[in-house]
Amino acid sequence: MSAIGRRYLLLALAALVSPLSAGFLLLGISAFGNIGEGIWALRVSALVGYPAMFVLGLPAHLFLKRIGWTNIWGYLIAGLLVGAVAYIVMFSSVIVNNFHLAADSERSLAPSAAILLLMAFFGGLSSAVFWAIARPDRP
């Protein structure tokens, strides 16, 4: 197989596997408890991960390659941002409806902030898996 063909094969494999990395992590954790919840998490990670990968992640990959940021740190930062943007898109109505300047015990953004951090972490995890498979830093 030619070097170019191998690069495209690794890129396709990375695009197929990395969006499921958060789901596989949660599936592994759920093996100590209720495996059904882990399977549910794997399905949700596919439902969220694949659109995020194709709409935000692959364009970010092309942008990072173009500007020469092909190390793991550039991909981790991009993954964190992609996870945060995916959260904002999915939960924008929650943010808008619960944002108040006055203290209100009924409307708090603390649970939303926790979900934002979790989705950013999962975005970073997915980008690290993508980078480890595709290895854009290698010629």
Protein model, in words:
With 139 residues, the chain is mainly α. The protein has one domain (3-134). It is built from six helices and no strands. It has helices spanning 3-17, 21-30, 35-67, 72-90, 92-98, 110-134. It is globular, with a radius of gyration of 17 Å.
Molecular shape: globular
* Cα end-to-end separation: 15 Å
Parts with pLDDT < 50 across at least 5 consecutive residues: none
Structural class: mainly alpha
For the largest beta-sheet, the strand count, sense and barrel status come to:
none
In DSSP terms (H or I, runs of 4 or more residues), the helix count works out at 6
Query: Over the alpha carbons, how many angstroms does the gyration radius reach?
Result: 17 Å
Summarize the structure.
By secondary structure, the protein is mainly alpha-helical.
Features:
mainly alpha, 139 residues
Per-chain topology:
Elements: H1 3-17, H2 21-30, H3 35-67, H4 72-90, H5 92-98, H6 110-134
Helix pairs in contact: 1-6, 2-3, 3-4, 4-6
